[in-house]
Amino acid sequence: MRQVDLVISKRLESTVPLVGSISQYIIGAGGKRLRPVLLLLCSGALGFQGSQKFNMAAVVEFIHTATLLHDDVVDDSEMRRGSATANARFGNPASVLVGDFLYSRAFQMMVEAQDMRIMETLANATNVIAEGEVLQLMNMHNADLSEASYLHVIRSKTAKLFEASARVGALLAQADPQHIDACATYGQALGTAFQVIDDVLDYTGDLKTMGKNVGDDLREGKTTLPLIAAMRLGSPSERQEIQQAITNADVSAIERIASIVQSTGALEVAKLAAQTEAQRAVNSAKLLPKGPHVDSLIALATQLLNRDH
Asked: What is the pLDDT of residue 6?
């Protein structure tokens, strides 16, 4: 990961000072770096030792960071990772344009791998992510969103880059089709579990630990799995309260809605869904050659369920 950070720092350089300032600001704010980690672990599990893995790990982090910059503008977010968002500090126009810079820099770098399958994987993933963003926008304030539609959105918006990162790791190793598919399935399952837990934390976390405001999803009118489950399990009046809060993005109702989500057992339903996805990830990891990299993949999927930020 230190090698990846060196690549990131070098490739963020630009002759336009503001580009470098904003890029360094958001990437320097930290983050879990899960997507680069997946790429490194999968390539390592399949025996790849080349330095191109560091470049491709930086590529997926650049794509992810670009989506964050754009997300925060769309959602009008003010906090991320415990600090002011780039759009809050530098303004929306600069954040959008620097997000575009990170996308284009990522595509410049992925060409260097000279592997059409890697370019196809990352290009397709970027396109699916964009579609997922639009789907989520279309579903804002939609209290009738089904669980299947919710899962479709998060598998497009969040899990797709996890899947692509793991697949690229296997492609770098020139693995056989079965191992490539196992890595891709692991990434998709892990990414899905990650997002479901993230949605759970929106009702159980706190600003200091999470680095963002609790209740942000409801504030933005997002219908997440905890809300979908609470509407299914709650009384008619509780269901109506949640529907109105989603439709109106009612900030004043956040405490009341959080109470309903917790009392109906909706959080347990969401956690079980995440656990199912995590187990799917574990099962896929076990199809790879045994070793410390696979042990880490299994541990990552297991520990993901206990995260608090």
From this structure: 92
Q: Considering only CA atoms, which of 218, 219, 215, 220 is closest in space to residue 228? A: 218
pLDDT digits (tens, 9 = 90+) for 214-263: 678 888 899 999 999 999 999 999 999 999 999 998 878 889 999 999 99
Q: H-helix or E-strand containing 247?
A: helix 236-248
Task: Please give the C-alpha separations between residue 79 and each of 168, 211, 230, 245, in angstroms, as whole numbers.
Answer: 31, 7, 27, 22
Average pLDDT over residues 129-139: 95
Paired residues of 83 in beta bridges? 80
Q: Distance between alpha carbon 44 and the CA centroid of its chain, in Å?
A: 22
Q: How many distinct structural domains can be found in the chain?
A: 1
Residue 87 sits in a domain of what CATH number? 1.10.600.10
The label of the residue with tokens 């790429």 reads 39
Tell me which residue range forms the domain holding 297: 2-306
96 touches 69 (CB < 8 A): yes
What is the pTM assigned to this prediction? 0.93
The torsion angles phi and psi of 118, rounded to 5 degrees, stand at -70, -45
Q: How far is CA 55 from CA 98, 171, 287, 308, in A?
A: 20, 14, 26, 30
pLDDT at position 214, please?
64
Helix axes 92-111, 52-75, angle to 10 degrees: 160
* Beta carbons within 10 angstroms of residue 92's beta carbon: 15
Q: Which residue has the tokens 């925060």?
A: 72
